[in-house]
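In this notebook, the sequence line spells out the residues, with the fold written below as integer tokens. This is how one looks.
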Amino acid sequence: MAADKKLIEEVASVRTQLRANPRAKLEVLAAISKSLRDNGIDISSEALRDLQITTSGEIGTLHEVVLPVGTPCGV
């Protein structure tokens, strides 16, 4: 449990630093966008702006991803 708390605090610190440094946030989003493009994954500007850095524990029950029928899941 202490490890979970430490992880959440570390990720929260990264979020705080990115809010305080808009250039760093822009560079992170640019790197994510480039990586997605390089791997043939399309993302809209709106979706890219809405991405959040979080831990799986903070997400809770959102671990299930519903894919459109026929979408390969890579498993």
Notes: The chain has a mean pLDDT of 85. The helical segments are 2-20, 22-38, 45-50, 56-59. The chain is about 60% helix and 0% strand. The CA atoms of residues 65 and 71 lie 12 Å apart.
